[in-house]
Design brief:
By secondary structure, the chain is an alpha/beta fold. The protein has one domain: Ribokinase (UDP-N-acetylmuramoyl-L-alanine:D-glutamate ligase), CATH 3.40.1190.20. It is built from nine helices and 15 strands. The strands form three sheets. Strands 6-4-1-10-11-12-13-14-15 form a nine-stranded mixed beta sheet, sandwiched between helices. It has a four-stranded mixed beta sheet with strand order 3-2-8-9. It has a two-stranded parallel sheet with strand order 5-7. β11, α4 and β12 form a beta-alpha-beta unit. The longest helix is centred in the last third of the chain and has 16 residues. The termini are close together.
Length: about 325
């Protein structure tokens, strides 16, 4: 399985605490530094699950950029087409984790400059092309649909996960409609799905039905502590979560995306793919950073422990 992720790459600084009052200081029990960014998280998750994984992104020629390239290689991701800017800065996100949730403060750095120019020499050679972070990468927004067409011409399945919109313009953002319609599989969380459709009271089943009507072939909605809801033109189901002790939920949605898509495009049904994805996300949130992303064997072990058949990808 060949997976290509196009989008954001940054350093994640993990601190297990909320924001202290202005002018005050607090101690935290731990700190971690890891690679991050939805596209990068997805690429690492695919590699850990056994796919041949590649990332196209943009970083600065600085200490954070060097760290990220080393981490990507260590986790088995092809970084050949990552642009390294001579004078720009690598993006940084600070994740403040409190109990089972987190808030994120982001400096986009070179992610904000990522554009079509960084894609010109790229040949798409993949079974799956994942294009996340639509609202973060405004330089890439005009060509989301163009990238999707190019991927389809190469025989790839195209998946789309918008992430959160800090400006809260959602579907009113220019190029959004074209990007969604050009995608095969859509993977929002429930809050994003409701905001995109401007339907704050709809449940996940109704949201999924609407996205299918809009033309995507499959939908996987992450429903926070309730697990996920998955649907395509043949099946739909609510998939309950696997219970674990939460350490850090940062990146769990990207792990879910990878773990849903790999079995699904290999021919597994939407329900078994959703269950596999829930299991992978559960393993991730029990740890911190890319090193906590699960392998295929680890996910199958959790499935079997809970009475489900393993999945081969």
């Amino acid at each position: 399985m060949r997976a290509l992720a196009i989008g954001d790459l940054n350093v994640d600084l993990f601190l297990p605490f909320g924001i202290p009052p202005m002018g005050k200081q607090v101690f935290v029990r731990d700190s971690q530094i890891s690679g991050g960014g939805c596209a990068a998280n997805f690429a690492v998750a695919c590699a850990k699950l056994g796919a041949k994984s590649k990332l196209i992104a943009r970083i600065g020629k600085d200490v954070f950029g060097k760290f990220l390239l080393e981490e990507l290689r260590r986790h088995g991701v092809d970084d050949e087409d990552i642009t390294v800017s001579e004078d720009g800065k690598t993006g940084v996100s600070i994740a403040l984790v409190e109990r089972a949730d987190r808030s994120i403060i982001t400096y986009r750095g070179e992610n904000a400059a990522f554009s079509e120019a960084d894609m010109k020499e790229t040949k798409i050679d993949a079974d799956l092309v994942h294009i996340p972070s639509f609202f973060i990468l405004e330089g890439l927004r005009p060509i989301y649909s163009k990238l999707a067409r190019k991927a389809h011409e190469a025989g790839a399945v195209v998946s789309f996960d918008t992430g959160w919109d800090p400006l809260k313009k959602w579907s009113k953002t220019e190029y959004f409609s074209e990007a969604l319609k050009s995608s095969d599989i859509f993977l929002p969380n429930i809050y994003e799905a409701r905001a995109i459709l401007n339907e704050p009271k709809w449940n996940e089943k109704k949201l999924a039905e609407k996205f299918l009507q809009m033309g995507v072939k499959a939908v996987a909605i992450k429903t926070d502590k309730r697990g996920s809801f998955v649907a395509d033109d043949s099946k739909s189901a609510e998939i309950p979560p696997f219970k674990v002790n939460v350490v850090d939920p940062t990146g769990a949605g990207d792990v879910f995306d990878a773990a849903f898509l790999l079995p699904y495009i290999c021919g597994k049904d939407v329900i078994s793919s959703g269950r596999f994805a829930n299991a992978a996300a559960a393993i991730k949130i029990a740890g911190s950073g890319w090193s906590s992303y699960p392998t295929l064997a680890q996910v199958n072990q959790l499935l079997q422990k809970n009475g489900f058949a393993p999945i081969n990808i």
